[in-house]
């Protein structure tokens, strides 16, 4: 039962996983398959072979001049259609009647003169701008596009109530292109624009501004005008045009894009806008032409909070810098951005300034900017990114009287500090200092604002952080990425450090006590350093292991070994080196212990295999041999006193004495029995050897008892070696009782070997076979051998 449940659960699990996999596959194909991009493909018609599931169709920048019902009616799921930059002249909107999902329709930059109306209920974005309409292409059906939030239009003629049919819609943006609008003699047109948050008007890019239409706006919060070309003559036309537009109390953001003007006219426009209820004025892509002369500017009370001018081209080459900069420096607003301009300077305001935020990114300012400037006491943020600043000391000095300055960004300059000079002076209020992408070196740590909390020094030339510098106790975040630091600094001088970014440096062996020294650290980003994967690193890794994993940023992927070569590219996470190879004391102890164990093992083995016994035997035997070596071979033969030496176990002595000895002696075979022919005063060992040496042959009576007797083994050992020495076949083995092979102890290899190779004589149990047995024994003896008598022996 439970087995069934398990298998059901398992198969459900499988189905679930398969569903996930298939689901993701379908999603994947949905994204790629249902988007069809046929832009810039030279099409003259919408292709017929589109997949019917197509949701997004891009046929922009082609040569399509007409759209028919059959072209797209089968694309029932179409939501986005881009048809801009084609050659459409007329459009019957009813071609979309089967595209009920259509939300986005871009028909801009065609040659449309006429549209035939039809409701498309879900439309959100309808762009008919940059076409050839004479009057605004507004159908009464547009009034039903309740979802519409963007409407792009174009016309050469305007009538006040043209937009009435859509007056009740809540649009986000109306784009009205007036590129081809021309001034009519003796009449002033007007247009009422209702209910849009943003109005975007585009004029002809190359003609001087001449539009004299009265555009009445209500509730427009955001106004953008593109392509304004002004000179001293038509400047008035432009400000007149603006007067109605900028009336509305709702207007907060006013943007001008692509403006070409004289300085005089620009100042005039500023002057005109100053009392208007605008809060933020932005000018992008400004070109100043003709001349720049001093303009009188009255800084009326203004609601303007911020002025932003980005990307300025100056076509005036000889002019008074002061005339240009004074207009800006005296502005009574809070935020001023002048970015990406050829301006080389900005003046210190003459009276205490209202500026809280100044952004001069990407100009050509030098160190002389704002030197000795005491009127920027309210300034909180100063950005001088990407200029031509060189001397950090002077930058410090610049801030001296900026008593509210909190954020200073002087990144991407050529700042350096030669540490030889006097102490740096900084505004004590600075908490964020961005010094990144300069050419600063170690000495920068001797020239920092004392209360800085966030310090960005990335991408400089710092090699080490000096220890003997003033303490930066407030410092919380330090970015020293992309420098040449060789060591991970401790937090000695930055006791409050919480974030350290030190990736892309030259740190090979980060010290293990980093986390001990930096108790408050919350985030460490130290990847992409050339880590040396050795023992030192191991300690660091251990200390890493003790901190929470969120602390180490970009772990483990950007932490890789650089050396040694064999580990190059290995993730630190996967680098393991044993405790042993890193700890010398441990290594010595281990070697010692291993040696001891080895010695003990060898000793144990020696004892087990009875090695000392063999050594003793070898010693005895060599001594005896030495004694015997002095005697010549014939002499030795002549010293034979016995035909046979008999080795046997005490337990078998009954058989030996009752059967073997009588039987042999009957044949005149002289026997040496160690207990009978014992020479007093010699050791048992010597007696045995003596006996063996003086005997022609040795008889061994093998039985389980023999195997058990140690003496018998000695005897066998000597007899065997004697045999070797004499080179003759002098061993006779009699197997009295069968010996099971495995009953011979392992250490008696000799006996084992002999038993295996030798033919032994088996003592038959049957009496009838005894005769043959004895005959065999006798045959083994050469009776003719001359034996010396014991008396002779004594004589010699
Ligand atoms: C410092 O400026 C650089 C750009 O120059 C920017 O990427 C970085 O985020 C800034 N640092 C801080 C702390 O704001």
General description of the model:
The structure is a single chain. This protein has a 21-stranded parallel beta sheet. A 5-stranded parallel beta sheet has the order 29-28-30-31-32, sandwiched between helices. Helix content is 27%, strand content 18%. 32% of the residues are buried. The protein has 19 helices and 32 strands. Helix 14 runs parallel beside helix 16. The protein has 796 residues and is α/β, with parallel strands linked by helices. Among the domains are: 32 residues; 91 residues, Ribonuclease Inhibitor (Leucine-rich repeat, LRR (right-handed beta-alpha superhelix)), CATH 3.80.10; 169 residues, Toll/interleukin-1 receptor homology (TIR) domain (Rossmann fold, 3-Layer(aba) Sandwich). The structure holds 2-acetamido-2-deoxy-beta-D-glucopyranose (NAG). The site of 2-acetamido-2-deoxy-beta-D-glucopyranose has 9 residues, from strand 22.
